[in-house]
User: What shape does this take?
Amino acid sequence: MPTLPSGPNAPVNASADSLFWRLDGGGCSLVLVAQSGALPRLVYFGESLPKDVDAASLASAVSLPLAHASVDNPVPASVFPMLSTGHGGPPAMRGHRGGTSFGHRFDLDAVEQSAQSLALRLRDAVIGLRVVLNVSLDASTGVCAWHTTLHNHADTPLQIDWLASASIELPVPFCEAEHFGGRWGQELQCRRTSLDNSPLLLESWRGRTGHQSYPGLVVGEAGFDSHGGQTLIAHMAWSGNHRVHLQRDDNGVPVMQFGVGYHPGECELAASALLETPVVYLAVGTGRDQARQRLHRYARCELLPAWTREPRAVHCNSWEALYFNHDLGALKTLIDAAAEAGAERFVLDDGWFHGRRNDSAGLGDWGVDPTVYPDGLHPVVDYARQRGLQFGLWFEPEMVNPDSDVMRLHPEWCLRLDGVETPLARQQLALDVSRSDVQAYLIESIASLVETYQIDYIKWDMNRDLVLPGDGQFAVAAQQPDAVRLMMQQLLARFPTLEIESCASGGGRLDWGMLGECGRVWLSDNLDPIDRMRMQCAATTFLPSEVLGSHVGHARAHLTGRRTTLSTRAIVALGGQFGFETDLRGLAATELAELGHYTSLYKTHRQWLAEAVHWSVVGLPAGMLAEGRVAVDGSQALYSVLATSATADAPAGVMRLAGLANDARYTVEVINASLDELAPYNRALPRWCLDGVTLNGSVLAMRGVQLPIMPAHCALLLHCKRVS
Assistant: This one.
């Protein structure tokens, strides 16, 4: 029998042959039941259960029937499913010792329970393995964190082909799932699918979170949406190769697994060694919004750096304005225009270092190019500070051009498989940052520049996938993400006020694994506001909006060629951490004033927005996207609505404002810089658009406000303020 703790949090002995554990917190309950000596099952994770739930009755209610054409005893998935028990679904672990010991049979050895956590200790005495399943439920938010530790107790190595961070049994009524993928410039496209006995398999073998397959899922009962239906959001905090599997097993139970994707031979666990998996985070709710609001609160309280709770600076990034043009005069005029528009930080992007006149050379040589900057970066840094701006600098530490001094000196530093040519991407290779000598070189190179120029901010980029990610013989892809975080941690220990942004060809590394060190992520290289609005709505499924870098781009988007108004671009950019990536030098005085209006709005509202509750706006016609953010105390809110295309009806529909306090009265106003662009399409605007309107929160949620006729690519920004 398992060794069980005593005290108020001990498991309830449900019956002679079953055991019962329960965690409560943040308005949620989590229940595990072990029956007839089998491993525990997750039988409930959802809204709080009554305190007097009878354990024996719950265990009986979830017991399985015995079907024909199966093993003689029904085998549920359990928290650690095994093929050796006759379970027909994917196992939680696949491993072997040189081809032997391929089957695993774990028993529950002990359970340690505290107020908010469980450690389920499993043991395979035959093969010499121990597993600890670590499960916690946050007392404040109700977010569940789940990960696995494997200990090799034998005196021979164990080859690991697969080890699930979490294997989650879902409620049988959960029959639909949303998953996210795409490509560069079109990140986080949401796809919805029905669950059946065919597996939904999401994989990335590109060495980073990736644009193509995101390690997160939204699952729920039929027809779940933003505000209705039981829903669960799951996300693995891991920035490398991954595998996500979702399928109904033979018993009709949906089972979801997350884990690291290992290349052949990559993960060998030495005798007496430990392997710890990344954490999977789970949040439940009635509708997608309630679940993601729990995730946002958890990330803000438990994961994000402290500086993300301070007012976030308005950025001006040099990339799309100047690309590789590092003429000092051009940079100074851009800084002047940025200061006039209200920027608070200037970020010098790619092209400042040795030999870097284009993207074919210099990457890896992290010294200032004296042919472009004979006095170092001091003239740019000093000028930015004279204009009242902080200074940030772009790096791509994990990458290297073959045409670089560091590669000529250390060809052994790049990831490779001896005898096979690695294809170039963006004319670059990847460094093996798991090597201590590579880490030392990069840390000292970056630290020297941070110290010399008192850099406030680093944009840490990663512009290619990892192909043949080995040390010459063995794959080392799984070591790269942890090595990146280790380097960041060492830099932050030396420079506690330094801020780091995670960028990977835009949105190639948006996972929670980066949030402890990076309080800002670059959502996409695509600044087209029509695409960007969709991506922001999808990204906030997992990430709080204040960590999303969101810039005003050019009138004609550089990635799509679409033309949009300055007002539309600015309103969409207000959905994240606001900034500019357009050539401000070419803006007319009227355009700078218009941009200044939105910059001022961001500065006015950014502090409460960093804690805001995110709400979807539903019920709009096709061609409309909208979202809202409501202050925690309900005192105010901002809602943005965008016409992605022309609507079928002339008016753009009724916009219902979710999330406001039902019994409070709010004044709703349109706060666009101007409504002039709507004039050609509306003989008369709805009166509230011109004068505002004051209504109860319940009325605004149920009836809403009538939108004007909105041409394609037009946006409105609404401010709600509670009145006494």
About this structure: Confidence is low (pLDDT under 50) at residues 1-16. The first strand starts at residue 12 and ends at 15.
